């Protein structure tokens, strides 16, 4: 009788250790997914900061920012300095809108919507092509790094969606 209790306790300990490992793996996967999806927020936020810096006459920018917002900012700067047209605020709103789209990608990506996540990655990759036009290799390299991080998050998201039901789905109506 005493041996049965010891055997059962050992089996419970093995099961608890296995459950703990599974839980740790699930947490690592969840963290990898969230870290990947959070890049959309970083892209949006740093693009807004880049636009503000340019609007107020600064000459620095973050390499993780969007190329398309930098083009909008350059147009505003050029119109102001050559044509005397001050469209800073109007074009800042355009940059803010573009950055907001990436914040929305972050929000819905964290809701485990793979289609939105992939769309954000594709648009960010296309945005990275802008830097080829001006041979900004540092920004291109950083776009590649961010895309690699986003891809890691996407792999984790697919793994999570395979093991858990997503909160929202593009294929079913929201009740």
Give structural notes:
It contains 5 helices and no strands. It is mostly helical and about 180 residues long. Helix 1 (about 1-55) packs antiparallel against helix 5 and helix 4 runs antiparallel to helix 5. The chain is elongated.
Encode the helix/strand succession as letters: HHHHH
Number of domains: 1
Helix content: over 70%
Distance between the termini: 54 Å
Specify Rg, calculated over alpha carbons. 23 Å
How many β-strands, per DSSP?
A: 0
Instruction: Name the shape in a single word.
Output: elongated
Helix count, per DSSP?
Answer: 5
Q: Mean pLDDT, nearest integer? A: 83
| Class of secondary structure makeup | mainly alpha
Strand content: under 5%
Biggest sheet character: none
Unreliable stretches (pLDDT < 50, length at least 5) are 1-7
Features:
175 residues; mainly alpha; 5 helices; elongated
Summarize the structure.
81% of the residues lie in helices and 0% in strands.
Blueprint (SSEs and pairs):
Layout: H1 2-55, H2 67-83, H3 88-110, H4 114-133, H5 137-163
